[in-house]
Specification:
single chain; about 500 residues
Length: about 500
Amino acid sequence: MTYLGIDIGTSEVKAILINDEQQILASSGAALRLASPYPGWSEQNPEDWWHATLDVIASIRAAQPLAFSGLRAIALSGQMHGATLLDKQQHVLRAAILWNDTRAFAECVELEALVPESRRITGNQVMPGFTAPKLLWVQKYEPALFRAVSKVLLPKDYVALRLTGECISDMSDAAGTMWLDVAKRDWSDRMLAATGLGREHMPRLVEGNQVAAQVRPALCTEWGITHAVMLAGGAGDNAAAAVGLGIVEPGTGLLSLGTSGVLFAGTDEFAPNPDDGVHAFCHCLPNRWHQMSVILSAAASLDWVAQLTGSRDIGELVRLAEGVEARNAPLFLPYLSGERTPHNDADARGVFSGLSMAHNRAHLAYGVMEGVAFAMADGYAALRNAGTVLRDASFVGGGSRSRFWAQLCADATGLNILRHDHGVAGGTMGAARLAQMAVTGRSISDICTRPPVLEQVMPRDAERGVLLDRLQRYRALYPKMQEEFAAASAGR
């Protein structure tokens, strides 16, 4: 039997096909476009997710026709929080408003005023990237469209609808909407009512490793498959990545430097710390939860400085950064798209501090990489305030290709950073594992093993002294800039 894991990312839809031994038989990817019609807005066309999904499936089928004919289950992972609005005919009403869209900041304040107990129910501060405040924004500024809304789906769940004809979501993805009672793993009528919605607007909830629905027979026929193919509940992208790396128990974590930056910790109970901007969500496995600290611009910050300096080869830029002495580099706040943990400030912006004529692109690249590592240190401090202590963290995402960045993160956080084969990371393997568990009934401990560790990067005592001094200066920057961020936003 074979199993297909598909990840509906922000920049790409990716997929892998695995067998019972979890060997990757084929993989494929299809790029996505992002639209930003106004500053702070981030949107995508849901039809693009679907067509990209069909493309990666066709590619995998062409590469491994015999193995694909034995497909038994599919699971999806995906970018979280995106508001995909459908009418009664299941037609898309507007472009999906994505996780990194900050237009609904005022509506966050409004929602917390409407539901004073919202942090207790959801375990989180209401943030503009989450789904519920987006719907308040739509209700306020697009009222006719809001009245036409019949279902609100998350990105991967829209693809699930196209695959199966059913509206389904899993606990981990649903937890990021601010409509879920995260401790009870059920929709909150109170939070839904505050945004003018009810349970009838929501998808059916399942656990990520359970069978959720059957893939449309017409699709199976088109793919040359004569038996039923199941769809598992799936997961939000970080929960799926954690399953792919075997991070399902307390004390285990992952540090992801993709477009955004995430420090993820598995927990066996609901353990919120909303005041520090920690996300406390359901895991995609039954009776498990997780915490996350999140920044919105991690590897995206390095891409930005590469474009800024005309550097076509990011690898070369990283090599130049490796030769910079920390004490000679500018400090950098990596808040190019606003900030979540720990400040929750949509108005925050990127800042270089201490620039001089002596600085060049190598110094800028170092400052960006160090600033992202410092943001991860802030995130770990917030997790520790919630009672979480990690033994180590697996290093994943595009930034994990750089050992130098792993060392900066180890020095800044004090964590041992584990490097794996880059190919094993990502939501696709986690999704494929969820699909395998759903139809085979095999246990979590049997399926969710940790991949081999290629290298353990440990904090360096000598260099850490210099870095911790710079971390304190970094932490002093945001309070000094906060009023300026707000004033600049008000002037836009």
